[in-house]
Specification:
33% helix, 5-stranded antiparallel β-sheet, alpha+beta, Phosphatase 2c, domain 1, 7 helices, single chain, globular
Length: 242
Amino acid sequence: MVNSFSITDIGKKRKMNQDYVFASDSPVGNLPNLYIVADGMGGHKAGDFASRYTVEELVRRIRSDPAPEGRDLLDLTIHRVNYGLYRTAQKRSEYAGCGTTLVLTYISRGTAHIANVGDSRLYVVGSTIRQVTVDHSLVEEMVLAGSLDEKKARTHPEKNVITRAVGAEHYVDIDYFNCDLRRGDILLMCSDGLTNMVENERILEIIRENGSLKEKAEALVREANANGGSDNISVILIDCGI
């Protein structure tokens, strides 16, 4: 049986938490479970609105959609939510320029089905830690092109410049991944408030050292804050039940 724990924290430097998370181990519409992390961007109100709107609209639409589970359901739903957020931002000046990252997954028959826009991430954690999603960011493009190494990328001044976001344009390009899971695997979904503050090797250590999912997630947040807490921190840990 799939089991999860989610947490979001304002961090040490921000005045508002613009992250928004959703976690359900039970069915949501025709999906057997559903987990979402969104990290909003824009002005004081805009980023908060973008992440909350995106998550709540995704959940509402999935709950009411009669389509069976699968990529078509996710693709249509995310595109509709993207266009709805884009049009809202066009009409209301206080939301101008808003957008949000999105990483979403559900687990069915031993496989994680993942959708991703932006630089929030999903990892598979077992004896090692492996990032499944690929950041849609300027720095990641430089790394992939070979013009910047991964170590320098962590401190690059343009690290937070993302190249895709839900709501930023009338159309959004979405990445999809299917990940077959092994016994003992834990999925980690998080905003960059965690990964900018904590190295992957340390994340692996914390997840392996602590007991319950709650204890592991809270320890990750404490570590990010101890290292500066420069952004909002969101974590979902999922025991895949295999």
